[in-house]
Amino acid sequence: MKISTKGRYALRLMLDLAMEEPQVVRLKDVAGRQEISIKYLEQIISILQKCGYVKSTRGPGGGYALAKKPEEYTAGMILRQIEGSLAPVSCLEGSENTCSRSSSCATLRLWQRMHDAINEVADSVTLADLVEWEKELRGNMDYVI
What we know:
- The chain has six helices and two strands.
- By secondary structure, the protein is mainly α.
- A two-stranded antiparallel ribbon has the order 1-2.
């Protein structure tokens, strides 16, 4: 399975909002920091707003903020909102495997193990974890004059 650009950008957008918390952030500012087209971010923010992951504030000083605390979001939650299933093969995308070959498919066990591993990792990393990792990578860059 390959995460799309939209999925990767959604994680970066949510991370950017988490890094600026509790401030309201303009999408234009996110676009500049993340080097992502504002039009593309508008598509992504619309999805994240509809599912209740972000909230918006209108007017001067308006923008977007997380609807909940960073530790309440996992990478898996965000990716599933944008990507849908994280399954490596189509027969594992739904809640029930309806493939006619599932009872005789030796490779299904491999796909299921991969699916379980992907979900375990994606669901074990929170937005708060990503914030910490970002801070580690930045090191003392916040203090550069």
